[in-house]
Amino acid sequence: MASAPVSPVSVVPPAVSPVRVRFCPSPTGNPHVGMIRTALFNWAFARHHQGTLVFRIEDTDAARDSEESYEQLLDAMRWLGLDWDEGPEIGGPYAPYRQSQRMDRYADVVRRLKEAGYAYDCYCTTQELDARRAEARAAGRPSGYDGRCRNLSAEQVAGYEADGRPHIVRFRMPDEPITFTDLVRGELTFTPDNVPDYGIVRATGAPLYTLVNPVDDALMGITHVLRGEDLLSSTPRQIALYKALIELGLAQTVPEFGHLPYVMGEGNKKLSKREPEASLNLYRERGFLPEGLLNYLSLLGWSLSADRDVFTTDELVAAFEISDVVPNPARFDLKKAEAINADHIRRLEPKAFAEACAPWLRAPYAPWAPEAFDEAAWQAIAPHAQTRLTVLSDITANVDFLFLDQPVQDEASWAKAMKDGSAELLRTARGNLDGADWSSPEALKEAVLAAGEAHGLKLGKAQAPVRVAVTGRTVGLPLFESLSVLGRDRTLARIDAASAKLGA
To answer: How far apart are CA 276 and CA 293, in angstroms?
Structure first.
């Protein structure tokens, strides 16, 4: 570590809350749904136990971290309603909560670890390490660090320093098995040959994740570490470090660990950041409701009951226990996520639904001019739209026929609906609609039904040409409620335009 003046760390006082958990993402790229699932489980666990959620930013990798990603993380947490009790914008007793602002604390901890013999300088070069690992593999031995620099003499250290050899700092692992009970996976044991001494400080003096993460957990009094399965192999290292920090008076206890199952994508592979469905931004832009998305993400490893998939966030909090999380990988199913979100859309109060759709009724999503939007028409059609949306962004295409001068004609829909005899049907339907009661969608239905009967068609076949003529599509909102909102004059004009296109 750098030799700049440091501020000594202090012993963590007894925690006021029985549960202190943390969510500590790195600000790199867009928020990942797997990372959000981890945040959700930590948040739900804290809220269920009336505990504390610490939001901490792991931004010690200057090459990959960005301020833009940091702001996206905060915005994502706020949008989802995953509030935190300590962290950015709030502060707390262990501030600062960005690791890049805590370097003096890490330097002090490393100094104490080295003085007490828990850590040592390692002068092995990358080439030497690679050669010894290859030799170990060839001999069928574990290929982890072989402890070459564990017990260097003062003369050896002096020689390396005189040669100008760079060094890292390694933590000295105990020569005994480490056993712990994972809150998700049960009792696990790691033997010494599988957990060799590991680096905690780079040759540049920069601290590694293997140091800063457990040190901050210890200094902040974290009681439960709930994180992804991919970090399981580092747990025995961290437990050994916690025990050293306890001996040094810098921590009180070793936290309990729970490792959450992988979120899998297509082909039963871990959902990669590079896959489109991994990005939280995709769901926000498509118009997932925060509660709908959280409901689905909670099912990736947990369930409220065997026969119920749709529930509120309050119900999730009331029922959530980490011991109920299953260790098996959870496959991300976009269709199921959409279906659950649709259920949450239908649960909204009508006013809340109309307000939630607002972003997709104006630029840049809406293809109509701002002055063409008719609030009264929107309020009249909104209740009928609410029962049909999967995501809120679907609303734009569902109602564009109300606010555009002419409907967006989908040629595939036109070809499907406009069969032989459609021109005659439209002519009859127009006449019936012209004389119908436009205050009653049922009367409009009867007008089209009568036109169909006149041409030997049932309602489904009869209304298809009318729907495409008026809305441009074969599927959409309830037709006769849509005609009622659109009005007599505009409806008849569109039927006339369609008839002209058919050459009638």
So the answer is: 16
